[in-house]
Design brief:
Length: 316
């Protein structure tokens, strides 16, 4: 398995390079950058703007700029923010833990509820609970995330006043309990789409497995129903489910942009949105490269989980 992991990581290098080249070229073609930032007040001359571009190395050809950026990337340097005039690496590292907290909470909530709803819906096929889960799933898949977040803010934050509507901590508060209060609404907003889709996928996979011959054999031998369901049926039903989760996990980075913006959560999603509005291209490039690596890593983890769930799968 170690050899397979190493091969996959080495094979991901050309992919990351390709993504970085495309992203860098599009950043260069996009309007804005230092010219738009410093020329907003109309008080800078063309000579002053040219001096700024020369100091930033933006007067050089695009291939030269990319090679310089790539060389710095290999050393862990993602450049300097146009807006904050600070290293991009430091800015991202300041926001990354906040995003990991939100994504971890949303992902954990989605996994627990999707598995619970999916298993119960499969066991109680065509029951009232099954139909209710089906209706909620369609609602969750069709509903815009930003609208759902606003409705949660309106109901729980404004009308009931039981949960905060924005931020990561209240003013002057740094405790874990305050963080949990601020985390409830954005985590549920981030995970609602996955809860809806994954629960239906678990239900379908489990219904397919529980009608297999080996499940009927286990029941005929007198094995308890809970053991048959959890140890034999659910474990095999999770193998295709892992594929869906591995593909969807990187999409949480996309969902975090909307969720963090709606709830003013100080993470990488909010940072990307602010950088996009300010045309701070070095910060955007850094976030795009890290997101590409997260997608590749998520798919790799999903492949490795196959071997854990199904011993018949071997990687050379």
């Amino acid at each position: 398995m170690l050899r397979y992991t190493a091969q996959r990581l080495l094979g991901a290098i050309p992919l990351i390079l390709g993504i970085s080249v495309i992203s860098f070229v599009f950043m260069q073609l996009a309007p804005g950058g230092p010219d738009a930032m410093f020329a907003r007040n109309g008080r800078m001359s063309d000579e002053q703007l040219a001096a700024i571009r020369r100091n930033m190395g933006l007067d050089k050809p695009v291939p030269v700029q990319y090679l310089h950026w790539l060389k710095n990337l290999l050393r862990g340097d993602l450049g300097t923010s146009y807006v904050q005039n600070r290293p991009v690496t430091r800015i991202i590292l300041e926001r990354l833990p906040n995003t990991l907290i939100l994504v971890g909470a949303g992902l954990g909530l989605a996994l627990v509820l999707a598995l619970a709803f999916g298993v119960l819906a499969a066991v109680r096929q065509y029951s009232l609970f099954d139909h209710a889960v089906n209706a909620v799933a369609f609602f969750g898949l069709a509903m815009p995330v930003f609208w759902f977040g606003l409705m949660l803010q309106l109901f729980f934050g404004v009308r009931l006043g039981v949960l905060p509507t924005a931020g990561m901590h209240a003013t002057g508060e740094t405790g874990a309990l305050d963080l949990l209060k601020h985390l409830v609404l954005p985590a549920f907003t981030l995970g609602i789409g996955s809860i809806a889709g994954w629960s239906r996928y678990v239900r379908s996979s489990l219904l397919e497995v529980i009608h297999k011959d080996y499940i009927r054999t286990a029941r005929a031998k007198g094995v308890r129903e809970r053991v048959v369901l959890l140890r034999h049926a659910l474990r095999n039903a999770l193998i295709p489910f892992v594929t869906v989760v591995g593909i969807d996990i990187p999409l949480y980075a996309v969902g975090a942009v909307v969720t963090e913006t709606v709830f003013a959560w100080p993470g990488m999603g909010r940072l990307f949105y602010d950088s996009l509005a300010a045309r701070d291209y070095p910060v955007q490039m850094g976030i795009l490269v890290l997101s590409a690596f997260a997608i590749i890593l998520g798919n790799l983890v999903a492949d490795l989980l196959y071997a854990i769930l199904d011993p018949r799968i071997k990687y050379g």
